[in-house]
Amino acid sequence: MSLDSVAAQREWGVRVERGFGKEVTMRFERASDAELVRACIRGEAAAWEALITRYERLIYSISRAQHLTADEADEVFQQVCFLLLTHLETLKDHSRLSAWVITTTLRECWKLRRRVREREDEADPASLVHIPDPQPLPDEVIERLERQHLIRQGLEELPERCRRLLVLLFYEKRSYEEISRELGLPPSSIGPVRARCLKRLKKVLERFGLFADR
């Protein structure tokens, strides 16, 4: 990490590292991205921690999808956090922060992969000519990643029972029998509980603006 990055962190009194979600105050847990950004600009360290905690999963999932190693993913995470910190005041649309994070994370993944490739090809400089520049990410891919991020964020706002049920159903693809054993629910009640939980999730996602154009 650069000296500028370290200095910025010290000035803000925050850490750009994994695993500090427990330090996030309740005040910012349900704040919108725009509200968090404004609080960060005011210098509220808890808002910064909440913002990074919110986007940590997304940043790492993109890095994994780009086939980076664990150390490389950590490096990308640190760099994206630093870039976010230094660009907060110049972001044009705070409500589209997720799109900025997605694009920036992918760009940093590509940069890192290019550096690795260049180091590997130092013995053959001519081969560097064949390293392609990354193409802009299609809008539909950015929208899909944004939607996935918002759904994950929405799940975090549900009660534990609802969140676990929906994760088991839609992410882990468990059967009703398996869910019944794990959650202690009669199989016949899973359908109605599922419907109520999805209704609650939809309300949260509507608050996030996910269905604004529908």
Profile the largest sheet.
none
Extended strand count: 0
The CATH homology group name of the largest domain = RNA polymerase sigma factor, region 2, helix turn helix motif
CATH 2nd-level architecture of the largest domain: Orthogonal Bundle
User: How many helix segments?
Assistant: 9
Low-confidence blocks of residues: 1-24, 127-133
The assigned structural class equals: mainly alpha
Into how many domains do the coordinates divide? 2
Computed CA radius of gyration, to the nearest angstrom:
20 Å
Outline: globular
Quaternary state reads: single chain
Give the topology string: H per helix, E per strand. HHHHHHHHH
Q: Output the CATH topology of the largest domain.
A: Rna Polymerase Sigma Factor, Chain: A
CATH class wording of the largest domain: Mainly Alpha
Distance between the termini: 43 Å
Beta percentage is under 5%
- Average pLDDT reading: 79
Helical content, roughly? 55-70%
Key terms:
9 helices, Arc Repressor Mutant, subunit A, 214 residues, Rna Polymerase Sigma Factor, Chain: A, 2 domains, mainly alpha
Report on the structure:
The protein has 214 residues and is mainly α. It has 2 domains: 135 residues, Rna Polymerase Sigma Factor, Chain: A; 58 residues, Arc Repressor Mutant, subunit A. 66% of the residues lie in helices and 0% in strands. The chain is built from 9 helices and no strands. It is globular, with a radius of gyration of 20 Å.
